[in-house]
Amino acid sequence: MIAIFLTITIQVLSVTKHYNTRYVITSFLLSVLGLFIINSILSVIFPRFFEKKRYIYIGLILFCFSIVQVNFIVQELKLNILRRNESNRYINRYEKYYKGLLTVNSYGHSSRESGLGLAVEMSGPPKELYNSILKKLYPNYVHYNKFSENFYQAQIDNLKDQVRNTNKFIFQCDDVTMIDSFMKQIIEITNKPNATYKLLFSNSLGESIFEITLEPS
Predict the structure, then answer these.
(1) Comparison of pLDDT for 31 and 101, the residue scoring more
(2) CB 94 within 8 A of CB 209
(3) Is residue 212 within 8 Å of residue 168, measured between CB atoms?
(4) Where are the alpha helices (DSSP H) in 15-125?
(5) Is the per-residue pLDDT at 50 higher than 70?
(6) Where are the chain's structural domains?
(7) Cα distance between residue 210 and residue 208, in whole Å
(8) Which of 58, 172, 202, 216 yields a CA-CA distance of 20 to 30 A from 8?
């Protein structure tokens, strides 16, 4: 029991800096083993109690766990409904007003193009083939790597080709705070030190649409 407790504690402490529930799934699984061991120890210490009231005891434990789980499911359902509604607002706004314009997007916001762009960048040796297919499917899209705060080389060349024919383009992201690092890259790549941005739309999830102007009038 002490070994299980120490294992759970060490794992939880090791992920506290960047905590996420998925990082402690193994600890949650060990907690089930811990409860089983505690139950076995108590059944030896209090054999009469467990002999007469075993089903009440087990039922009480299941009831307590069920309350916690039901509450978790309800909260997740509400959150997912909010995400769905906000994502639909975001997609509808883009398709109504900005679809067809030159667009730079980053991974994380609600769009098919964003997911496909990340999949291509994370792919193996046929990446050039995938990039050519993606460019044919979505000729007005350029993909930005938000994790390294930079463009992949193939996307830099694509962006340079695209901005030769336009002074403005759209930037899609899932976090408003990304715009500063993004603008630094744009200024460096396009050599337009006076480039500016304007927030066109943002929802409660942080998904945002910016208009980037390379040479303000």
Answers:
(1) 101
(2) yes
(3) yes
(4) 25-45, 47-97, 112-121
(5) no
(6) 2-12+19-81, 89-213
(7) 7
(8) 58
